[in-house]
Model the fold of this input.
Amino acid sequence: MTDHPVPLHHFPEELLLDHAAGSLPEGLALLVATHAALCPACRRTLVEAEALGGALLATLEPVAMAPDALDRVLAEIDAENGSDVTEVSRPERDPQVPPPLQDYVGRGIEALAWQRLLPGVAAARLRAASGGEMPVRLLRLAPGTAVPRHSHGGLEATVVLAGGYDDAGGHYERGDVQLGDAGLDHRPVAAAGAPCLCLIYEEAPLRLTGPIGRWFNSLISS
Amino acid sequence: MALSSQQAERLPDAARQSQLVVAVGASRDREAFAELFGYFAPRIKAYLLRRGAAPAEAEELAQEAMIMVWRRAQTFDPAKSAASTWIFTIARNKRIDALRREKRPDYDPEDPSLAPAVPPAADRAVEVTQQAGRLAEAIAGLPEEQAALVRMAYFEDKAHGQIAAETALPLGTVKSRLRLAMGRLRKALAEEL
Done:
């Protein structure tokens, strides 16, 4: 299996615009940023949407600042040291983890609290930067594993980090995005050869919809 | 440089804005900073008020955003973005940090492992400022039904799904209007002179 050099499945433009505008919740923003780190085309759209933000800023009716605002800011600046740009030291990187995701996986993918959900399916929940809850999980499928048929109560977004899977929508590999809404009922199957690692955002818990799967709903929604 | 309210209202062109940020970054130029402050601080404040900050909070955060402008001016690259774009991202991130108490995950545009989305050219900085001018004209020329949705997306902390719910427009209509608007603006960015 050959990795395609750039992702073939993208976030739709209106979601990129939401991200540039700063309107997405942290979890979904994490998926958009992770995809963008792997996708030159979506980075270009984000740059355009940020330019739109800058141009819109100019259209706002200005609201007067406090009379002493500039003096206060200059005083604050004077109180600082001369050197302003601090070098951020980057910890050792796992090349599998795109930069936006690095901060969220702490000591690395393997060190996360992985939980086995079903045979061949394991998940690890990620936390928001504040430490709070965030509906984002990493999902790892053993090669060839089929995820039981399921649907979602709301938006589900998936970004593939390693390996690949096939679904009614096509074949998905590193960097690819799959979006599902409440209407999507699907049964992804991991490609043979290597484990499939995905980053998943779930607005609402998934529901297994197959005949046996319904029994497992309580097990996997934790 | 005296900072009258007239000056605060007046719009320096995109090339001038870029020069000011570069001057702040390269030589810690306080007059250049004061001019940027006069123009951008009241607009950042307006932006924060639109996005739900209380007046005192908006004042404070606008000041903090301008301090970030000073601190980060060295990282501004006029060949990559217009000053207004760069300052918008600072204001946006400040708002997410402060008002939502969330972090905004992002890729690092300076990351060497990311292939450049746009090949750099010798006259990129000139092109970028010209693009900013064309973009402003294109925004002014958007049909109102598209412009209204774009403003909601940028100024009201609403993702397009919420916009659809609140305007009672079908989700597909919101998506297609936003895409049409983006298409027109992209055309303005790409236009050859």
Remarks:
- Chain B touches chain A through 85 residues (CB under 8 Å).
- Residues 12 and 39 of chain B are 8 Å apart (CA to CA).
